[in-house]
Write a structure and sequence with these properties.
- This protein has helices spanning about 10-20, 50-65, 90-100; strands at about 5, 25-30, 30-35, 35-40, 75-85, 110-115, 125-130.
- It is α+β, with helices and mostly antiparallel strands and about 130 residues long.
- Helix 3 links the parallel strand 5 (about 75-85) and strand 6 (about 110-115).
- Helix 2 (about 50-65) packs parallel to helix 3.
- The longest helix has 18 residues, at about 50-65.
């Protein structure tokens, strides 16, 4: 097994590293694990719309995967954490974005309802595992 290599997403990831001392991704051999990505922008602002927040979280996953040399096409497992339960909009938006970002495969997925996430206004956080060739 090779030594783990850690990655920091440019922008918000640098803040997280400096303030909270954690990395956004780690690559060990051909496996990439990322920390949970919220629907924040580089200033840690969360959109008012739940659909926009979910879409931003997917973009942040994409950005973070890219720092480690991976992409959505390599994702095999998704965990999503949700505050506020599961109104129909959650699964509608999640499945639409799964089809958009992973049109050629369907990863395994676990959804978890939680009381709170890392920022007070967060309603979603997405964490993935990817296997790169």
């Amino acid at each position: 097994m090779n030594k783990p290599k850690f990655f920091v997403t440019p922008g918000y990831g640098e803040y997280m590293l400096n303030q909270l001392h954690y990395s956004q991704a780690v690559k060990i051999d051909n496996r990439v694990e990322i920390s949970g990505q919220g629907g924040w922008d580089d200033n840690l602002q969360i959109p008012e719309s739940l659909a926009d927040e979910i879409a931003q979280a997917f973009r942040n996953v994409e950005r973070t995967l890219a720092t480690a040399g991976a992409g959505w096409e390599h994702v095999v497992h998704v965990n999503s954490y949700h505050v506020g339960g599961f109104p129909p909009e959650v699964n509608e938006v999640m499945s639409k974005l799964f089809r958009h970002y992973m049109p050629n495969h369907a990863p395994i997925w676990t959804q978890v309802g939680v009381a709170a996430l890392g920022l007070p206004t967060m309603r979603i956080e997405i964490r993935v595992t990817a296997i790169v060739p």
